[in-house]
Sequence to fold (113 residues):
Amino acid sequence: MSALPVYRWHLAPDGYATRRQLRARGLRPGGQSVAAQLERPRRRRPPLVAHLYRIDLAKPVRPMTPGRWRAHAAMMRARRTCPACRRDAGYVIPPSLGMCVPCAYPATAPCAA
Fold:
């Protein structure tokens, strides 16, 4: 059983990056396992942990194909469509309401000022 190397926050050596840092460089972990961890201590709580991946083993991000763009557009359209009135709300429907704001609060008329 091997333990991962643990580094303090902001003290990781060169050659390691988090998922977000890899993405900013146009890379992805590409199936590699976590190579190290960053820990940020906190008072009276467990430390924050960030997983680090090796940059030399990272692979380029896969490009979006036309099919993926269509699927993404359909997914976003479904998130904007109100299930009550079946109209495109123009914004993502809040999960807390489950429907667009006019359908959730029908008695509240918009202010005509």
The first strand starts at residue 6 and ends at 8. The mean pLDDT is 91.
